[in-house]
Each structure stands twice: as structure tokens, then as C-alpha cells.
């Protein structure tokens, strides 16, 4: 008898041989696809795997999310022997010999813990083992959670900390009758630690912070109304929560950034998103260990950087604006090596016989392009791309132009005094004639402008980063040089700057033309999945889609909960007398279910207010809460149905049959849809020969 296909595949894989050389026609469909998924990066693995490599190589990068998740991915790769050399250029590139399994294994491990966490949360809230088992089954058999947990992504790490924070919270709530005991302190402190973890992975961790915050306020309000407690005791409760739920999380969250900046000390692709002073910290950056004059003086030759644009250096060249684009004068764009001169400069400011004159806040200056000797100039002609903004050009001959060449320099942050300090002073240039402010629109010029960023003069005088600049390079032979090390920002400054950059980055994530986007109303109904890899029938395809039975059951459960909860709440408010068992079930439903409904709402509805591009995977934290609510609701409903029956044997039968039906339905649905998670090859679903034929229940599903 020959070796079974699955065994030959497994033997090859574990012994180090290429399993692709085995007889694939004998290997189960799921095994074949799972190996395919192991051999190449999918979807956002190209981002977060690459960022893990940056940590291993200590190369600075920029991301719109806080650093903890990527740091943990990098640490997992480092500890498992990955050397950080795989390029992660695009989905589908083979990993070949690179040891990436530690990073995937770490994410998969955290994803697998979601099931026991959900089990323990529901068990704590409902005191019902069947409800907890049903919840665990819903998450075990969900193809979406399985798909997200298999790859190098932030989602399983984020969901791990969210669920851990929720579990810690309900555990310390259960210790309310033993305040200040060791378990009470343990769970309260662990809640704070997990809140720091959730926020440290993604800013949406703020939603679980809001939930814990609401629980804490409600708890303290209840304690305040307990007249058996002294004011001192209530003060101790308040202090304990401030320490464990505010001070501890903030300290840990800040510590992750301290480690982040300490590890990433080499110049990399993220430099340009940050200020010149920040870049001076990074080894390999041209500002690192550089020495230049500290304060700007007349006659200085400088480069000027825009604070909003990552590579926004004021720049010019000999090319003129084309016919029909404003005045036909020299183009100005981003990235102008400039000489700083007085409004009417009669003598050479670099003449050694004349004293140094520093440029100060409010001075009227002229900026001369070093290469062409033309002045930075603006007038009432419209900018090439941005309506209602004025054109900026280079004008004049050998520094001689007209009154449109004069600018008033203003220091925005005058903490360094009236003088202009390199790297640190934030300046604005106000055009003297038109009153407009020099800035960058962020728009890219056409080919005639060499695809540089448009520089305009905006008549809107509001202070924005687009119109704020800083001096970077600085040459003046009459001034002594200082080391830029003394100008490096402090840790609080770089912490604040990094958050401002991340917020701007998130706000800049707008959908492009014809780009696939997802709407929040799509998510609960499982309207449309997300393609992780592959398009054609010859490609290896992984498709992120929730188990339809689980997701639609969750949606039905939310509607039923709102209906049933409202009926019970009205009945109780009207003074209806409920039997003891019904009253107990009602308390579980209203209190335990209410916490889970609040969690679902907090993790779902804020996305309707967001202007950034959204994807299907953003719903999964909310899905965890809806699944836990489903477990409690159906356990309660079946218990109420069983209670209403006179026969105890019949009641037990109804309860057991109901639970088994839910479990078997979700398990069978997982059996049908599991290729979406493990991967598919062959014909698409609309082809009768496809293993997914007949399973495209919604036209919007694209697998």
C-alpha cells in the first residue's frame, strides 16, 4: 500500500524537503492551499512584515499606527531566527529560505487566544457554561477570524489586547465584594496593562478604553451612593483606579515609544515625514552629527523645508512656467537654495568689515535663488493647480527685481526669541504686496513641472503646517558652527511630533479614484469580503469573509436583544413581578448582555464618523462582542423557552436540541466555507467545477 497523500506531504514538510515535490493529487484540498499560503506573503503582510524587518535592522520608518504591534512582530521574528532581509515588496513574492514562520506563528497564537478569552468573558458575565461554549464555537468556526489570525497582521494583536482588557475588567468587577484584595489589585492592574497594549497597537484601542472608562465611572458612582462607605474609602477607590487605569497605561504606552525611538536609530524611509530636528537624531541622515551656524543672519545660504510635506524643500530650477500658466517666469516648487538678503541690500552682508546682522521676527527680507540669481516672487496671477491661490515664481536679474520680491518673516514658536534658529524655529513668509502666505498645496505638478509639489501663496492666513517652514541647511562663513546634537528635540517633543504625524497620516488616508473601499453598513451583514491574494483561477486565492451563519446569527441576535431587552426593561420599570428564575435570566441579559452590546456599539459606530478609507477587517473587534452577545442571548432564550414548558424532560430536550442546532449549523457552515481561509486554487465560484460552486450566496462576494 502506498503512503497516503497527506502523510507524504506532512513528512516532506517536517523533514525539510520541499512539499511541493510530493504527489499533490493525493493531498487534501485544504492542506494544499495551506502550504501555498505558507510560502508567500499575502495582503498587508507586505507592510507589517517589512516593518518587523525594519525593527530587526534598526531602520527608522513611518506608519499611521502606534508602534507596539510592529515591535512585537519584529521581536517574534528576531527570536525565531528571521534576519530581516526579506524585502516584502509585493504580495505573492515567495519567502524562499527566509524564516518568517515565527512572525506568523506569533500572530496565530494571539489569534487563537481569542476563543478562550471569549469563553471566560461570557462565563463570567452569564455564569452559564453552555453560553460560554456556544460563544467559543462561534469564534472557532468563523472563517474571518481564522483568516486574519494566520498572517503577519496587526489585527490579531489588537483583538488580543481588546479581549484581554475586557476579560480583566469583568474579572475585577467580580472582585467588587473584596476590594483592595490581591486578586482585585491584580485584575485592575492587568486591565490597565491591556489598555496600554490595545492603544499601543492601533488608535482604535481607544474604544475599549472608553468602555472600561464607562464601567469605572459607573462603578465609582455606585460606590459614592453607598452610605456605608466613608469618604476616605471612596477616595481610596478613586485613587486606585487613577493609578491602575490612567497612570499605569499612560506610562506603559509612553514606554513603548521610548523603546521604539531607541531601537530605530538609523536613517530610513520614514525620515522625511518628520521635522529636521527629529531627523538629526538618526544615524546616516545628512543632519546627524552635522555642524552649522545656529542662528540665521543676512548673507546666509539656506535650504527651507515645509513642515507638512515629507520631502517639501523649497526648490527652483531654470525652467519657466509654460504659456497660459500664470506669468511666464521661473518655476518654484518643492524641493531653492536661497541667499537671505535685506529688502534693499546696499552692501555685501558677507563682507568681513561689516558686523553680522541676524534675521529677526518681523524683518522684511528678499530670498535669492543661488543658482539663477532670481528672487522668490509672487503676484496676483492664479497658481497653476490650486484655485484662489497666487502663483509663486523666480523673478529678476542678478537679484534685481521689483516690489513683489519682498517677504516678511514671522516666527511662529517664539520660545527661542526673535532670532531664527536652524531646525527649531518655525517660520512663515508673508508676501508684502499681496499679504498672502507662502505654502505648499501638496498637489503634484504635471510633467512640465517635473512632477514636483506645487508651491503657492495662499491668501488664507490661518496657521497650518502647509504654510510653516524651518531652516535646515545653513552656510555663513562669518558665523561659528555648532553641533546639531544640541538642537535635538527632547523625548516629550518627539513623542508629541510622532503623534501629530500619525494623526495627519490617518487623515490623509482618503480613497483614490476607482479604489476598492468598504462601507460600515456592509460589515455586519457580511456584504463583501476582502481579497487577500489572487484574482484568476490559476492563482492561489485567500478571501477574507466571515462565516455567513455566524455573522447573520450575530446580526439577528443584536435585533432580538434590543427587542427582548426593551420588553424586560419596560416590564421591570412598570413594577411587574417576575418569577425568580426569569428575574435571574433577565439580570444576566440586561447587565452582561448590556456590557457586550456597548462594546459592539463602541467598536462599530465610530467608523461612520471617519473620513479615512475603511476596510472590512475594521469590523472584527466589534464582531467579537456581537458573538459574545449571541452566546448569552440564545442561552437565555432557550432557558426561557425551557422554563415555560411544564415537562422538565421536554424542557431539557428543547434546550439541548436548540444549542446543538446552533453548534452544528455553524460547524457545517465552516466546513462549506473553510477554503476561503485556507486558500483556493482552480475555477472561480461561478464555475460549476469550482469547489465553491453554489456557495456564492450574495452577488457581492468575489471569490
From TrEMBL:
InterPro entries: ArnT-like_N, MIR_dom_sf, MIR_motif, PMT-like, PMT_4TMC. Belongs to the glycosyltransferase 39 family. The keyword Transmembrane applies. This is Dolichyl-phosphate-mannose--protein mannosyltransferase. Its EC number is 2.4.1.109. Residues 356-412, 417-474 form the MIR domain. Pathway: Protein modification; protein glycosylation. GO terms for molecular function: dolichyl-phosphate-mannose-protein mannosyltransferase activity. It is found in: Endoplasmic reticulum membrane. Keywords: Endoplasmic reticulum, Glycosyltransferase, Membrane, Repeat, Transferase, Transmembrane, Transmembrane helix. It catalyses: a di-trans,poly-cis-dolichyl beta-D-mannosyl phosphate + L-threonyl-[protein] = 3-O-(alpha-D-mannosyl)-L-threonyl-[protein] + a di-trans,poly-cis-dolichyl phosphate + H(+); a di-trans,poly-cis-dolichyl beta-D-mannosyl phosphate + L-seryl-[protein] = 3-O-(alpha-D-mannosyl)-L-seryl-[protein] + a di-trans,poly-cis-dolichyl phosphate + H(+). One of its GO terms (cellular component) is nucleoplasm. Transfers mannosyl residues to the hydroxyl group of serine or threonine residues. Coexpression of both POMT1 and POMT2 is necessary for enzyme activity, expression of either POMT1 or POMT2 alone is insufficient. Essentially dedicated to O-mannosylation of alpha-DAG1 and few other proteins but not of cadherins and protocaherins. PANTHER family: DOLICHYL-PHOSPHATE-MANNOSE--PROTEIN MANNOSYLTRANSFERASE, PROTEIN O-MANNOSYL-TRANSFERASE 2. Its main location: endoplasmic reticulum. GO terms for biological process: basement membrane organization; dentate gyrus development; reactive gliosis. The chain crosses the membrane at residues 101-122, 157-173, 185-214, 238-259, 549-572, 584-607, 619-642, 654-673. It comes from Ursus maritimus. It is a multi-pass membrane protein. It holds the Pfam family PMT. PROSITE patterns: MIR.
